[in-house]
Amino acid sequence: MHDSDERYPPPMCHPGTREIVIVRIKDWYGFQTRPDKRIMWVHAPAGYGKTAIAGTVSKLLEEEEGLYFSPLGATFHFWRTSPERNSPARFIITIAYQLAMSIPELTPHIENAVKGNPMILRKTLEIQLMKLIVEPFKALGELDDMPNRLVIVDGLDECINSDQEYTVDRQHVEDQERVQIRILDLIHNLQSHRLPLSFLILSRPEAWIKQHMQSASFVGIVEAVDLYALGDHVKDTETYIRAELSRIAARIQDDGTSDQGDEEWPGENVVQTFVRRTNGHMLYASTVIRHIDDPYGDPRKFLKNILDDYAYNNLDLAHSLPFSSLIALYMHIMQSSPKSNRPLMIQVLEDVWAPSPSISTCGAPPVRYRKL
Questions:
Q1: 149-160 tens-digit pLDDT
Q2: 293 within a domain of the structure (yes/no)
Q3: What are residue 72's DSSP bridge partners?
Q4: Rounded to whole angstroms, how far apart are CA atoms 246 and 305?
């Protein structure tokens, strides 16, 4: 759920950013009227703020005034490293629970389904979908006049585990293509019953997801939005950078650590250089901000070192691989850590890589990390 304690504080769009796509989503949803295409798929590579967009849309719908109903039906945020959220096992029961909260008239019918067969919580997802969502809606009778609710499914590509919800070991992981396609088919099944629900799905544009979305059964009900091609990403990152650097500069002033002549930090030249480095990539910008926003260090020095680093001025590196600039950034951050901390840091990296042998050779971190 978008407001669960596990996700606190929930990722949100920085004020003044991603406005075009948020308006696009709200216009498509239409609140009381049902969109012609009941599924919107927002896709983009990693780091373009899909989860923040999902969180912002959820918050905006919750705060929408002047409506006699709650427009946000339910949310589910898949997350690769969470045993409870990297599997489809809790998907239907979580959606059903939230629908019962947002549509009170559904509650007794869902409760009766569980009381009548407590083992429903252990049944297949397809049976759960019928018993906990479809049949309770049908029990309400005529649905044409019921307001449309939005269900947000974020991080579909992060759903990697099998139905064995209590195990996350590698040997139990289903083929991720099949498990993600299964989620899409469950959503399609719901849509075939003409329930007053629309779905906003956010994910990376994985080939199998894209192919399924463009299949004959989906193409007529899906509105696809390429986040990478929508909006001014450079402008968004500049808005974020200016606000965050101003905040850090104010903290420096308040702490009394600002040297004479630094009152104008960061200065327009630093801001523009930082913006160019990001190339519209919000993940890069936010990673730099987190690194330099150290109460025990000097943000001015940290940022200067990053912007002056040779790796960022090497055009061959910048264009050699996707996310090369991020790789170089992470290398810089790790190399700038105190030498006394490096053995522990390398041990942590080895522990992180160990459960995922496909990421690297033999489950160990890349050689370049072990050379830090």
A1: 999 999 999 998
A2: yes
A3: 150
A4: 19
